[in-house]
Task: structure prediction
Amino acid sequence: MSVVADESVLEKYSKELTDFCVINEFTVKEKQLQLPAFKHLFVGRLIRHKIYGNKLKTQKEKLRSELAHAAAKASPVGLDFSKVEKAMESNEKIVDINNQIYYNTLIIEYLEKVEKVLSSVTYDIKNIVEIMKLETT
Result:
């Protein structure tokens, strides 16, 4: 499964969570039974996005280094390597990777918060069941 980091992924995850968290007296048992698998799904996504983030950072550093060395070799004047590297930040490929890193970081933050929300859903379900018991007595 390939990992993508953009706005559509965040929207997709948000919609899935919103749909899952709609719990009522008719769906409470179904949601309770689905909860462990749903937690596993989102934790797996979190780990995959963290791995993807590390790959993006490695890819960016490798590309920056290659571009800087190529620019330094091609220049007839001795260029300061650190200044060349900073100039590489405007390169189209680097900008694209930076955007992917930005969205991936947002997705990771979102998934970490989702993990906390899903941990508290168990208590919410318990409270719903208690309310249902009170209403029937």
